[in-house]
Amino acid sequence: QLQLVESGGDLVQPGGSLRLSCEASGFPLPLDAYAIGWFRQAPGKLREGVSCIAASSGVTYYAESVKGRFTISRDDAKNTAYLHLNSLKPEDTAVYSCAVIDPPKLFGQCVLNTSPSGLPYDSWGQGTQVTVSS
Predict the structure, then answer these.
(1) Is residue 18 a contact partner of residue 86, using CB atoms and an 8 Å limit?
(2) Is residue 134 exposed (0-12), middle (13-18) or buried (19+ Cβ within 10 Å)?
(3) Which of 50, 52, 71, 128: disulfide with 37, CB 3.0–4.6 Å?
(4) How far apart are CA 78 and CA 99, in angstroms?
(5) CB atoms within 10 A of CB 58
(6) What is the CA radius of gyration of the chain?
(7) What is the pLDDT of residues 59-106, one digit of tens each?
């Protein structure tokens, strides 16, 4: 059974930091074979692509709203991807979810835009809540 499980969300004060984890299990290939994306959705707002990392090459992309503050990474030995959130702002409050694109779709590239159904990402986690408030 393919599964992505996020963790690490919490209530944090503005300016604080968090590390979100996305643990993959049941996938037939090593984690670096998959493009991985992090997305967030705040109440009443559309899903927003935050960051993604391409398969194999590890090239990373960030939304302008988080560039310089968030960092995506992965630990292939642990089958886990991470999103490091620094200098958090109240507007970063959302449910954060990770997703993967099955190879060889898009030749291993990742994207920050998705369809309403989540495509081109094939598997999604349930999400973890991040709340930034004083």
Answers:
(1) no
(2) exposed
(3) 52
(4) 16
(5) 12
(6) 14
(7) 999 999 999 999 999 999 999 999 999 999 999 999 999 999 999 999
